[in-house]
Amino acid sequence: MIIQIFNPLLKRCNNQFFKTILFLCLTIWGIYLLLPIPVWAEPSTSLEITGDGVTTPVKFTLDELKEMEQYQHVYSTVNTWPTKRWYTASGVKLRELLDLAGIKEEATQIKFISTDGYDVTLTTKELLKDQRFYFPGLKENHPSDGSIPGSSDGALEVEPILALLSAEGSDDPEAMNGRDSLLLIFGQRAVTEQTNNLFLKYVTKIEVLTTPPEKWDSPKASLPDGTVVPEGVMLSISNKGNNEDKIYYTTDGSTPTVNSPMFNWSASRWWPLRDDLDSVNSPIKITEDTVIKAITIGPGKEDSEVVTFTFTVDHSGKTPDPTKVPGGPPTGVS
Fold it and tell me: Which of the residues in the chain have pLDDT under 70?
């Protein structure tokens, strides 16, 4: 169809080189005209709170939100690459907005929806009941690498808010602007917790739900539980998504929590872009009899069951490495 449209122009051009160039330019232009026009999200102009988890659905204009008491703070955060980052934000406390809508005791989940249709769902427990902090020592030990934990000293509890003003990558209030408003932003439960990917821009609707949240899948180990392994064998732990679903583990017999070491620092969405994955999501070296306990913790769902993996080390050096294929690499298929 594109060729038919521009065929008269091509016939008027006698030079074959220029005819080829003209054909390519017109074809590209024609394809561009046929592509859908992208829709760019815009800052929110209002906020609606609904759902079976509130008694009084409400709607606020941006001006009404500006008239409310504003809460301002610096927030520490880590994304799923992972990279450390500051945010400075000023806005309305989320729990005050939910109180105005009459949030019910049985509310279990809160879904945030942006003007461009993106959404983030969190449990009421993780967002409103668990303590969340700003960690001023986030960038200690390394200024940007989120797989190198900062210090949790001096942590300050902060409120989850919908920010009317914010500054990404800055702890300077003078840098704040309204470009991303309304911005969902909240603190970390641990200095390593990855929250930046959940900071939703252009929030225009909140749905409060009473539906029981699902539970994350338990982690799996690359070696079967109870295996006798050679000294120095490397163990990996994984789960279904390896994205926001983070694996926390211990090797001292204690129950893992969000403050325990993390295994899958880098989310699987970034793996094709990384040539250093094994140094970030580092396998665990087994050098002695070890009991590993692991749990999956992530947004919008309940924590998984804790699983236990027990490994006995054979120091004789005669035990085959269970991670290796017996007999060497395959030579064919039968």
Answer: 1-40, 319-334
Rounded Cα gap, residues 191 and 22, in angstroms:
58
Transcribe 190-219 into DSSP letters. STT---GGG--SSEEEEEEE-SPPPBPPPP
Q: Two tokens at 95? A: 């729990």
Instruction: Measure the CA–CA gap between 162 and 122, rounded to whole angstroms.
Output: 14
Nearest to 182 by CA among 38, 39, 48: 48
Do 90 and 70 touch, CB atoms closer than 8 A?
A: yes
Cβ-based burial of 23 (10 A; exposed 0-12, middle 13-18, buried ≥19): middle
- C-alpha to C-alpha distance for 127 and 108, rounded to whole angstroms: 10
Cβ-contact 195, 154 below 8 angstroms: no
CA distance 77 to 195: 6
Q: What is the Cα–Cα distance from 222 to 217, expressed in whole angstroms?
A: 16
203-209 vs 46-50, strand pairing mode: parallel
CA 305 to chain centroid, in Å, comes to: 21
Contact, 311 vs 178, CB < 8 A? Answer: no
Residue 224 is predicted with a pLDDT of: 93
Q: Model-level pTM?
A: 0.83
Measured from the Cβ of residue 296, the count of other Cβ atoms closer than 10 Å reads 27
Cα end-to-end distance, the chain, whole Å: 51
